[in-house]
Amino acid sequence: MKDTLLRLFPRLRELPLDAYVVGGAVRDLIFGVAPADVDVACLDPLACARALRRKVIRLGREEHLTAYRVADGPHIYDFAALLDGNIDADLARRDFTVNAMAVNLRSGDLLDPHDGRGDLQQRLVRMVDAANFDDDPLRMLKAVRMAVRFDFRIDDATLASIRPRAERIAEVSVERVAYELTVIFSANTFRRAVALLHETGLDVPIFGRAITETFHSDDVPLAAALALLAGDAHAFAKHWRLSVALMHDIQILQRLTGDRSLFDLYDAGERVARQLPPLLRALGRDDAIALPDFAMQPLLTGDEIASIAGIAPGPRVGVLKRALLEAELEGRITTREKAEDFIRAEANR
Predict the structure, then answer these.
(1) Are 92 and 129 in contact (CB under 8 A)?
(2) In terms of CB atoms within 10 Å, which of 13, 131, 287, 336 comes out highest?
(3) 104, 121, 138: which is the final residue of a domain?
């Protein structure tokens, strides 16, 4: 594994020998996946980062462990302090056994004191120590993320340790929680994600309620998933500091779940409207909805409408333009001549 790591991340050769590759890169290699980045634990992480002779970026805030990142082309190297200056103590403080493995860059030895390899073979998310959830409650949500990402199960003892601590997820910065939710609900495993959030008890502090509904499909995009679960989209987005764009998508999808016209779908935009069928499938409803031609434009400009209607530019022109576009979307108006007749008739009503 040492040789593979040095081939994938060649600048590891420049590090002092008291360094260990830890966590995800080791897990991924054992699991047969090429790691996208590498985490290094060492006695002096800043010195290790500077040894690569590239720009060093500091990660984290004062209240969290400080780490340093170096980007070298496609390679990302992250450096953190070896906890208590000892690799065994460091691995004992990690979240899950599959992340509590290390490769000694001096000897090449694989260190696996908590049988992470065995849990990888069993496709199991198992905690190292329940107390580690108290050190960082976000790890509870990471258990769900790992389970849906790798199609693992969470072992019973880990679930039992998360449930009484679930409310503590509120102590974590909202940005970190929002990131985990984004990953969880972007994995096309909607029903599994909902079931695990409920099984861990994390659904109540995150969504304000126990989620017990039965859903019927998994290929539910992020905004559609949150539209099904979030209730008051504005309050949910404000609490977890979601982007304004995502909040609007959630709100629109919630409205489209009820009665909707072709114009409502057109007004939502193609990106959002195409999330409606999987949302309806998840609810067990008919997803065969007619989508409008999103490239369609009104046959007349606003100035042309004002001239034909004999009115000054203003809100009334916008109303007529909207009515014209709706008639076009429904196939009632197909030519410019018919559009002009439509505007004259509407203006005289």
Answers:
(1) yes
(2) 287
(3) 121
Per-residue pLDDT of the chain (349 residues; tens, 9 = 90+): 899 999 889 888 888 778 999 989 999 999 888 898 999 999 888 888 888 888 888 877 655 557 889 888 888 899 998 888 899 999 999 999 999 999 999 899 999 999 999 999 999 999 999 999 999 999 999 999 999 999 999 999 999 999 999 999 999 999 999 999 999 999 999 999 999 999 999 999 999 999 999 999 999 999 999 999 999 999 999 999 999 999 999 999 999 998 888 889 999 999 999 999 999 999 999 999 888 888 888 888 889 888 888 888 888 988 888 888 888 888 888 899 898 888 888 888 7
The dihedral region occupied by 94, where left means phi > 0, alpha psi between -120 and 50, and beta the remainder, is: beta
Q: How far apart are the first and last CA of the chain?
A: 79
Alpha helices, DSSP H only, in the chain?
2-8, 24-31, 45-50, 87-92, 116-121, 131-135, 138-150, 156-162, 174-184, 190-200, 203-207, 222-229, 233-240, 244-256, 262-268, 270-273, 276-282, 302-309, 315-329, 336-347
Q: What's the distance, CA 324 to chain centroid?
A: 39
Let me know if residue 83 belongs to a domain: yes
The answer as to whether 52 is a domain residue is yes
Where is 102: in which H helix or E strand?
strand 102-104
Domain-located, residue 287: no
User: What are the beta bridge partners of residue 39?
Assistant: 22, 78
Non-local CB neighbours of 315 within 8 Å, separated by 6+ positions: none
Question: Final residue of a domain: which of 121, 138, 153?
Answer: 121
- Residues 200, 163: Cα–Cα separation, whole Å: 5
CATH of the domain at 32: 3.30.460.10
Give the tokens for residue 104. 């000694």
- Whether 185 is covered by a domain: the verdict is no
Query: Look-up: residue for tokens 């998360």?
Result: 162
Q: What is the pTM of this model?
A: 0.85
Q: Which domain holds residue 317?
A: 302-347
